[in-house]
């Protein structure tokens, strides 16, 4: 039997993703004990499983986008609620290792329009990256930038390497280990959002550390 | 720019008071979800592994929260289950229903469903995300409490006012309130207002549900060309929105384009095959058009996907067998009956369908004696069934014609015609039966006599009602109800006129009771009929007007 059917691979990825999902839920039920010998490997296992799920989700989504099926389903959501969700997710993964804080701009409206599940996937990917590379802290912001709702994830890592920064300003991120797929995925989601011809954008730059900015029109 | 820290959880829900139901066919997932919920403080958590179990549990308990996996293994999926729960009124609007999905395609189907869950979560998700989502939904339910309360008491005008208050005072719920208001306006038949509302939402952003709502409002105002154009655009941008295909089919049927309607539904079932009512509609249209293969597939899917579903009745077995017999595949029709013998045998209607199908099959197989025996049995069973599907009735009439029993056939056709005086499809079917048995003239006479009375009574009442003579109008219609007790249009017109009469002539408890009884009849015969909600609301108004307090049914 020849496995040349892309749908079969997609189905396989789904199954793996679901099994990993169960694994994560199982890991979540193991209580922390306050002993680094116990807690640290547990935290690493949780983060690693989350990142593996995420990779599979990205691969599935890129497969869909390649077959022309990536259609954001836009609805009204409260940016602050999503920020709170991101914060809680980041905090639960960071535990005591990193300090997580969230900020919201006073211009951010009560409601904004986007595909929540897609945007969340892109941002959680950025948060996972920061959790892996940041030294001590992570900040998630929601603000208005150039007329768009902007979600920004900042960390105090060594910052993005040059080839990633080049990708962030429109270049190709292929070939870079690990990060290429995640960023390609985030850009795909940003660009799939459009409002009267204005498309979403992904901006990557370095300040104190790496800055990931996701703009929604 | 100024950035501020966001506050912690501003609102806390008392989880200890909530009762939850976790639905998943996979035991591992059920216990994982139960554990997550109990960590929030929910102590009363029940588990269910199948749709049937949910229906049973929900019938016996009140749940504040239902967490349901989309994929429930064989049989119904989570979306079908939700539709059934809402359709049968088993869960109230206050109940939180969260769908859990793993499949990326279904996730979109769920997100864009017309009868959408309160939220959907994509597996895997963390406990934190779930808690945040629940918090958000529970707060929204609190904000919408008044809206729901009025809606469920059929006080639609008050529900609209409550929506307006949310729109005015709570920017967080602006779009949610507009969505609910649009649905209420469409339900009430206030399509021009619904149109304006949806255009207002679309001016904010072209949200898929707003575009679908607008298309519906346009269709009901007979602006079908604009509706169709809009629907094409919706499908292009949101191909997973299955209800757009259903609406497109309606729009095309309205323009007498049954081929186009069939095509739209075929696309719909290719995205979501499990919805029983979509398959039923597809089967009906395809059968009508003589596209027997498609009809057979669709009717088979109805039985396959709709096991234990409220939307499936013995008539659906009749539909499949009829197509099988029409195709000359008598063996398959008999096999369908055999495989479902115990189910069909358990109700008088099922037994009747079974006997009628046997009669048709024997005739097709060239066994007139056996056919006649089965028909006699059907005729005997008929007396025990209060309401018989019209197509089964016409099958019986056709069978009587085959055996030369024209008086029996005429009586049945006459009954069908009285109860469906405005259904061109059924009348045309009856006419065809007569033509096939070489009695075209006689058929025309039977049909015109049967429909004349009902039609005249209805038309006269319309004229009287226009003149403000609601007493005269309701008397005419009450007579029509006695002649045609299953004619839902007549029944609904009667309720409407009775309400008008009570408003203009003052309270008469006998008439009010009659209106309530007729409403119950319509509900039984055509559950979920588009006009029902509005009629209930009008009835509520008249009761309020005269200070009558009755518990909402």
Structure overview:
The complex is a heterodimer of chains A (217) and B (553). Chain A starts with 5 loop residues before the first helix and ends with a strand. In chain A, strand 8 (201-206) and strand 9 form a beta hairpin. Chain A has helices at 6-28, 36-66, 79-94, 116-133, 162-168, 179-192; strands at 75-77, 99-105, 112-114, 137-145, 148-155, 194-195, 198-199, 201-206, 210-216. Chain A is globular and about 55 Å long. With 217 residues, chain A is α+β, with helices and mostly antiparallel strands. By secondary structure, chain B is mainly alpha-helical. Chain B has helices at residues 27-40, 51-60, 78-87, 104-111, 127-143, 145-152, 156-169, 174-187, 191-204, 208-220, 224-237, 242-254, 258-271, 276-288, 292-305, 314-326, 330-339, 341-345, 348-364, 368-382, 390-402, 406-419, 424-436, 440-466, 470-483, 488-505, 509-525, 532-545, and strands at 3-5, 19-23, 44-48, 65-69, 96-101, 119-122. In chain B, helix 19 (348-364) runs antiparallel to helix 20. Among the domains of chain B are: 12-143, 3-Layer(aba) Sandwich (Rossmann fold); 459-545, Tetratricopeptide repeat domain (Serine Threonine Protein Phosphatase 5, Tetratricopeptide repeat, Alpha Horseshoe). Chain B is built from 28 helices and 6 strands. Chains A and B meet through helix 1, helix 2, helix 3, strand 2 and strand 4 of A and strand 1, helix 1, helix 4, helix 5 and helix 8 of B. Strand 2 of chain A pairs antiparallel with strand 1 of chain B, so a sheet runs across the interface.
Cα distance, first to last residue of chain A?
47 Å
Q: What class do helices, strands and sheet pairing of chain B give?
A: mainly alpha
- Sheet having the most strands of chain A: 5 strands, mixed
How much beta of chain B, percentage-wise? 5-15%
CATH topology of the domain at 12-143 in chain B: Rossmann fold
Determine the CATH topology of the largest domain in chain A.
Heat Shock Protein 90
Mean pLDDT of chain A: 85
Quaternary structure annotation: heterodimer
Strand tally of chain B: 6
**What strand line-up does the widest sheet of chain A have?**
2-4-5-9-8
Q: Give Rg of chain B in angstroms.
A: 26 Å
Greatest interface (CB-CB under 8 A), with counts per chain: A-B, 47 and 46 residues
Distance between the termini of chain B: 55 Å
Beta percentage of chain A is 15-25%
The radius of gyration over CA of chain A amounts to 18 Å
Reading the helices and strands of chain A in chain order gives: HHEHEEHEEHHEEEE
Number of strands of chain A: 9
Quick one: CATH superfamily of the domain at 12-143 in chain B?
Response regulator
Global outline of chain B? globular
